Fold:
Amino acid sequence: MSYEMNRKLAAKRAPLPTSANVDPVTAGIIRGAMETICFESCEYLARAASSAIINQSNERNASIVDAHGRLAACSIGTPHLTFVSQMPVRYGLEMYKEFEWGPGDVFVGNDPDHGGGHLPDYVVYGPVFDESGELIYISALQAHQGDTGGKDPGGFTLEATDIFTEGLAIPCLKLVHRGQKRMDSIRLLERNNRFPSFHGDLAAMIGGVQLAQRLMGDLLKKWGPDKVKAAINTNIDQTERLFRQEVSRWKDGSYEADVYIDHDTQGTKDILVHVTCTIKGDQLTVDLTGTDDRPELIGVWNTFGNTRSYIMTQVASSIDPVIDKNEGLFNAVEMIIPEGSIVQPPPNKPAALGSFHPACEVTEAVCVALSQVVPERSTFQGYKMGMPNAVIGFENGQMWMDQGVDVRVMDASAVQDIDGWGGMCAALGNLLLSQAEDAESRFPVINLQRQMVTDKGGAGQWRGMPGTLNVKKVLKPCTAMTWMVSREHPLTGLRGGEDACRYENRYLVGTEDEFEVERSALVQLPAGAVMAYQNGGGSGFGPATQRDPQAVREDVLDELVSIEAARDHYGVVFTGTVEDYDLAVDVAATEALRKDMARQLENA
Structure:
């Protein structure tokens, strides 16, 4: 049973055995070296991979996991996925004897029921031994693959009812044995992938892991295995200690939040994620009991590994950012993730779309709950888009796929004292989205428009950034696929701030057949068809009527907020016009309007 496996893989691990002691400075130097190795491994992958989703978008992470399966160091590409990699590695460690682990080996895993995230996220990893043959640590690379060999290209099947519909599930498979590639395994994976460039991506992942193995071997030679093990123990202990010190300063109590997904891919409405964050002394407990567990739901099943990671991504953003990211974070937090619910599904449930939702609703719920405790460090570490418009076609027997990861502004929310800014939510880390020129050079598409839309950000004392309207034309007949959420339940405003605007998506724009995608779509589009995707903006923070009226004036001049919204949401009245650039705050009228709005709120 996967529940039993999940409990085993998530169990707390003991420190590495060593007689050495290291001071904090030495431990920090060794930690810095490991993080640099992670960065070099990621950079190797980015430069050597063939597909745009890896070599352009940076949707990859590297980590070092110690011999007991503890996260020792990492290099962040997309923060959500940073804390998943140790789980598939732990499953591999469970199979240590059966799979004949040895120097120079490289493995791969992606199975959600054996520690993985979802099938597109391959984790490739390889062990590093000292000169005596003792396993010290493991290098791991995680990257999103463009296809998984399932029913539909890309690995996302809107009506999937089991994992097998979505593609090839790999608990653990050896790709390299004692430094020699196992071409039987590699050819198997290549045959089960539609992407013609997949062989290059897989080779790049293997190469990145092998580079890290060499560098990690050099680190062992320089410092010796006992000092390296002692440094790992010291750094993990320090992270736990500092984390607990932060929590001990928070106010004791239980803080709850409810967040909803509009519907599953087949239309079942109002999927609930419930969280209770309890603080008692230096102990933080995150409890998802009460989250939806209806067995008939389709497409909204998040994996256990992803749920742990998405919780930790949000929690880690609520503490001092200088605290190292390693296993000490997990040691300091108790997670209660109900079995059979959408955040820890039964075996063989499809999980590809669950990494969008409810995964992001998990972070959103934790964010809303903890905003009652640490508002100054509360910002949503997720994205409310259901999934982009994926466009798929075939030419000369080869599949091409524009995955819709276009440059956009979305979910860039405000935090205390700072308006939403930039192009993306904080959660996407150093993920890079596709430039128009790059996408148009690879795929038969033309980008007609990418611009922010006035009033598409959540109002607040600190304002969310408006979302963009992305309009795209396909130049050849193709299949388009999407799943729309956050129309009815957009991103939640914090501390009295307003919710973000809803997402919207239209196909066949400008024709008599134009329609809005209300739930999901898998349609054939003719050449010349136009799609228009309105991205949700960021949410607001704090009551909008507490925003400085002069800041609202600047928003109006910058076309982020309309004059009508300034009055209706912020309670700000102007004289003059934008066109004549003589716009000015009518102080008396603004004060009167805000007093009237406050009275109406009290009487509501």
